[in-house]
Design a protein that fits this description.
The structure holds two protein chains of two kinds. By secondary structure, chain A is mainly alpha-helical. Chain A is built from twelve helices and four strands; from the N terminus they run ααααβαααααβααββα. In chain A, the strands form two sheets. A two-stranded antiparallel sheet of chain A has the order 1-2. In chain B, helix 3 (99-106) packs parallel to helix 5. Chain B starts with a strand and ends with a helix. Classes of the chains: A mainly alpha, B alpha/beta. The complex binds adenosine-5'-diphosphate (ADP) and magnesium ion.
């Protein structure tokens, strides 16, 4: 792999890392498998692209994106908690609805941002070489996200959120409204995913309604890689691991795409299959191991 | 004071599985009462405590706490006044959180949770001294995850957590039934001490008739969702296990007589 390709993979790992942190929050902390992310990632992209095109500051567009994503998460969590729809189904419903909504927001399936202002302009103006600007901006935003989320989970509210995923009966009897906590948590998660989507769009110069496909699978793969390689013995460690897992995942994919076995090479479109197989093997590996040990 | 006024509860109403779990329950729990609750399996003991705690709303009837109508308050809101210890030691604590974090969660029972630190430095002293009371050495292990503790240790911690903030009533649902006899004895003594020290109002479900007689100032027996026996004070103190067994079979006897009448 060339240095340039590696840099690109790290950049991707960092920008999608913000999404992975959101997925970690729902999947691991709240024990709420949430497929909304496949819709809230392009939602963030769409909102940001429309806002930038309308002349808003690209950083401000991230705030709008986050609010949109938060709302999407709230819808899923309300469907689950208040209307008792299974979390997976509730999130699929929101995701499908977002497909139509995203096209409405963009007045079409995509928006190009080629000559528009982006979050990189500010750092390039400071004299940072353009090909490092992505790593720098994404690195700072991803690091800030980890710091904020770890801080939040240490607060009274955050501790209640951790406990809600762990033992809902106990926190309820300690006076915590678990529904409110789940709604807040899934909202926060999708807010982060939408920010990630907004940044991806600014980076690749376009928002596209199809860019969210496979987000959850990539997110889970990153979470699992991070946990396996870096551990999760504390909350801070777990979130740093999730972010690093995202980088490893993108590096692995870049490597796979460059691979040549005989005459066979991977297409970018094979990516979802490869990722799905990766997640499946990670999910069943502990099972297999147990069975082998029992024999 | 807590009152239940003509509370009724059906499960699966209108289906073949219909259960009439609470049948016209009238109960006044006075400040300082320590009520032991007995009855056969399925009599409705847990359902009664769940009804007070707000796990579900009664179909009819009214529940008040200090004259406030809480009939339609959800469980989390009633937790301000009510704390509970369950039979399963795993239910009362959070395994992946530390002892300190668990205590901190309990230390805000019923209070607003905001962006202040979850575990406050100033609480360390309080937590340590409370834990020292248990005599289990847990005061040296504030940063250990609760998942590492034994069932008995977890149940002791749960007792502590349930009483960090004084509840209007402490509900104990067979909270020693899942423990080995020696540990069960310790938790029972701990229960007696805490209730006495803080002058708590409490209800304790037990399967052990001796415990039911020797603990508390009042005893109620449930059968098929009804309170069929309610004694207190002197009368309770002079009860024997035989008295209770007789009462118990009397109530069952009625039922047997009814059955044979229906069959003949
Ligand atoms: N959540 C529930 N759903 C349906 N039936 C229930 C539920 N909780 C209790 N019951 C039924 O109500 C009756 C009383 O149960 P319970 O209060 O648990 O008895 P116990 O006196 O042994 O604690 C039983 O027939 C039980 O099957
Ligand atoms: Mg029971």
């Amino acid at each position: 792999m060339t240095l340039y390709a590696a840099l690109g993979a790290i950049e991707q790992g960092l920008v999608y890392g913000i999404m992975v942190i959101g997925v970690y929050l729902t999947f691991r902390i709240l024990d709420f498998p949430d497929l909304t992310v496949d819709g809230s990632l392009p939602l963030g992209a769409a909102i940001s692209a429309v806002a930038i095109t309308a002349g808003y500051n690209p950083y401000l567009s991230l705030v709008f994106a986050a609010m949109g994503g938060f709302l999407a998460g709230v819808v899923t969590a309300v469907l689950n908690t208040k209307f008792k729809i299974l979390h997976l189904l509730a999130s699929i419903l929101t995701m499908i609805a977002l497909y139509s909504i995203n096209i409405r927001i963009m007045s079409g399936p995509n928006i190009a941002l080629l000559s528009a202002d982006t979050v990189f302009d500010a750092v390039i103006a400071l004299g940072v070489p353009p090909h490092y600007s992505g790593v720098l901006v994404f690195g700072m935003l991803a690091a800030a996200t980890v710091v904020l989320i770890v801080w939040f989970l240490g607060t009274e509210l955050g501790q209640a959120m951790l406990a809600t995923g762990d033992n809902p009966q106990m926190v309820t009897s300690l006076g915590v409204n678990t529904h409110a906590i789940i709604i807040l948590g899934v909202g926060l998660s999708n807010g982060l995913v939408a920010i990630s989507g907004a940044l991806v769009a600014q980076n690749q110069g376009a928002a596209d309604v199809g860019m969210g496909i496979g987000t959850i699978v990539a997110g889970l793969a990153s979470v699992i890689i991070g946990e396996t390689v870096f551990g999760s013995s504390s909350i801070a460690r777990a979130f740093v691991a999730a972010l690093l897992g995202s980088i490893l995942y993108r590096l692995a994919i870049a490597l796979a795409l460059g691979l040549e076995i005989g005459g066979f090479t991977f297409n970018p479109s094979d990516l979802n299959l490869v990722t799905a197989i990766l997640v499946i093997s990670a999910l069943i590996a502990p099972n297999l191991k147990n069975r082998l040990i029992q024999r | 004071m807590i009152t239940l006024d003509a509370c009724q509860k059906y499960f699966h109403k209108g289906s073949v599985n219909e259960v009439f779990a609470l049948n016209n329950i009238n109960l006044q729990i006075k400040e300082g009462d320590f009520i032991t609750v007995i009855g056969s399996n399925g009599a409705g003991k847990s359902t009664l405590l769940n009804c007070i705690a707000g796990c579900f709303f009664p179909d009819t009837g009214k529940i008040t706490v200090n004259k406030k109508d809480v009939t339609r308050w959800p469980e989390y809101k009633r937790a301000r006044y009510i704390s509970r210890v369950f039979q399963d030691p795993l239910l009362g604590t959070c395994p992946s959180a530390t002892i300190e974090q668990n205590l901190a969660l309990a230390n805000r029972r019923g209070l607003r949770r905001g962006l202040g630190r979850g575990v406050k430095a100033k609480d360390g002293e309080l937590f340590r001294s409370r834990l020292a009371h248990l005599g289990l050495g847990l005061e040296e292990r504030l940063l250990d995850k609760v998942g590492l503790l034994s069932g008995g240790q977890r149940q002791a911690l749960t007792m502590l957590m349930a009483t960090m903030i004084r509840p209007e009533v402490l509900l104990l649902d067979e909270h020693i039934a899942a423990l080995d006899p020696k540990t069960a004895g310790k938790i029972l003594t701990l229960t007696r001490d805490i209730v006495k020290e803080q002058g708590l109002t409490s209800m304790m479900i037990t399967h052990n008739m001796k415990h039911a007689i020797s603990f508390g100032n009042r005893l109620i027996m449930l059968h098929q969702g009804r309170i069929i026996y309610d004694v207190r004070g002197e009368e309770k103190n002079t009860l024997t296990v035989e008295d209770l067994v007789r009462r118990f079979y009397e109530s069952q006897g009625e039922e047997l007589a009814m059955d044979s009448m229906l069959l003949s």
